[in-house]
Amino acid sequence: MTRRVIGTLAVLALLAGCSTGPEPDRPEPGPSTVPPSFSPGADGAGDPYFPKYGNGGYDVAGYDLALRYDPKAGTLNGTATITATATQDLSRFNLDLAHLRASEVTVDGAAATGTAGDGNELVITPAAGIVSGRQFTVVVRYGGTPGLLENKALGNGGWMRTADGGVALGQPESASTWFPVNDHPSDKATLKLAMTVPDGVEVLSNGVPGERTTAAGWTTWNWAENSPMASYLATVVIGQYRITTGQHRGRPMVTAIPESLPANGPAARSLARTGEITDFLETQFGPYPFQANGGVVVDEDKIQYALETQARPVYGNTFFTTGENLSVVAHELAHQWFGDSVALTRWQDIWLNEGFATYAEWLWSEHAGQDTAQEMFETAYNTFNWAEIPGDPTPARLFGSAVYQRGGMTVHALRKTMGDKAFFTLVKSWTATHKDRNVTTAQFTEAASKAAGKDLTPFFQSWLYGTQKPPTP
For 417, what's the count of Cα atoms within 13 Å in the CB-facing half-sphere? Predict the structure, then answer.
């Protein structure tokens, strides 16, 4: 903002009883320039539950990975090209990288220093400071033997070597075990992967499949997730798989089953209904948010869970040992809206992910002619331990029953409180408004209150944070 100085001088002269006379022309002062104040980016994103997850000082736009994995040796090598924007004047910044070692780092083409810091940190010092607001490109050449991140409370996540390849999977963190990353969901970014493996080995990952190229006994598989993605949702599955590729509403539909499982067994039959379940969920939550769809089953005893990896959920075969399981497919597909497209700002609010995904199971059950959502709500309501709260579950109970079951009950209770029309209008508006963004419980409370035409803060306080059974709406 600029202003002229003539008027101020004239007033001062009059107050002093002086005659000012004609004022000479004076140039207007230009905007002041504050010199950069370079400082290191934080070595954590500041999440209340996991303060050292992720990093500060920059925002990543995309990861472009060119990697080579040797299943026999268990080694991974390649290059990560990372595009980002500084959110402060950076003298240096961190990326998360576990078990692997960087051999060369450049920033905007100039050599930079990359050193290992505490807690799986790669500390990068560029040749010159990076001014806030400036876009920059980091290239990291790295390699080694990838492995798991151990977490006694939540379970190990990350890279798991298998008999025929490997699997990268895990929540709340896993990506840092196979590429340098800002490993926190608040910094969503796109992902391109070119993974080279021996001929005859298959590679599955997020998003849209690209062309495959073969040379000298090795095949490069290309995948691209073009919608911003939380880092823990990135996956790669390498091994012997039967891959089925088709189209669903104009999008690539890619499913994969290990060759160790029957080609038409319960796992394959369950994933074959991915399109049908997606169609139903669109009627409840709004348009499917991504450019591709599908799923992958892994036949590994250590993977006793399913994860909503973006555009292509990964399921442990444990869910299909007794027959088809469409409930888990509905759960992971619902996450494509709740948790993937609309992602968390902080881990404390995970009920927004799991509560809606659990409720999707109840909605699918009713749609399939089984128990109604109301009946499933009543069963949970009458058997739940209300001392467990979903709104602030603590890090150790991040995946506890309160987050899932009480989260689902909260969603149903909200529906009963608002009425069907207002509730489903809210849900579809929420997924559309916050597509590709990050959210908090406070934002959802505000949106629900506005849609209901009344303050629902007491409702959410009771259902998410109270330790006594709330009255049924």
Answer: 24
Regarding pTM above 0.85, the answer is yes
In a 13 Å sphere around the CA of 136, the CA atoms on its Cβ side amount to 29
In SS3 terms, 32-43 reads as: CCCCCCCEECCC
| Closest C-alpha to 56, from 111, 114, 140, 132 | 132
Strand partners, 26: none
| Burial of residue 49 (number of CB atoms within 10 Å: 0-12, 13-18, 19+) | middle
Return d(Cα 351, Cα 413) in angstroms, integer.
Answer: 14
Residue 420, φ and ψ in degrees, nearest 5: -60, -45
Nearest to 222 by CA among 199, 203, 240, 238: 203
Domains of the chain: 38-229 (2.60.40.1730), 344-465 (1.10.390.10)
Q: What is the C-alpha separation between 80 and 179, in angstroms, rounded?
A: 7
pLDDT 10s per residue in the chain (473 long)? 323 333 333 332 333 343 334 444 444 544 557 899 999 999 999 999 999 999 999 999 999 999 999 999 999 999 999 999 999 999 999 999 999 999 999 999 999 999 998 889 999 999 999 999 999 999 999 999 999 998 877 889 999 999 999 999 999 999 999 999 999 999 999 999 999 999 999 999 999 999 999 999 999 999 999 999 999 999 999 999 999 999 999 999 999 999 999 999 999 999 999 999 999 999 999 999 999 999 999 999 889 999 999 999 999 999 999 999 999 999 999 999 999 999 999 999 999 999 999 999 999 999 999 999 999 999 999 999 999 999 999 999 999 999 999 999 999 999 999 999 999 999 999 999 999 999 999 999 999 999 999 999 999 999 999 999 999 99
DSSP type of residue 338: B
User: Beta partners for 343?
Assistant: 438
* Rounded Cα distance, 191 and 205, in Å: 10
Identify which of 300, 303, 307 has the alpha carbon closest to the alpha carbon of residue 329.
307
* Residue 208: DSSP 8-state: E
Question: Residue for token digits 């608040």?
Answer: 186
What whole-number distance in Å separates Cα of residue 45 and Cα of residue 186?
8
Backbone φ, ψ for residue 349 (5° rounding): -90, 25
Residue 27, classified by CB atoms within 10 Å of its CB into exposed (0-12), middle (13-18) or buried (19+), is exposed
Dihedral sign from CA coordinates of 370, 376, 379, 383? positive
How far is Cα 270 from Cα 157, in angstroms, rounded to an integer?
A: 25
Instruction: Determine the Cα angle at 402 with ends 350 and 342, to 5°.
Output: 20
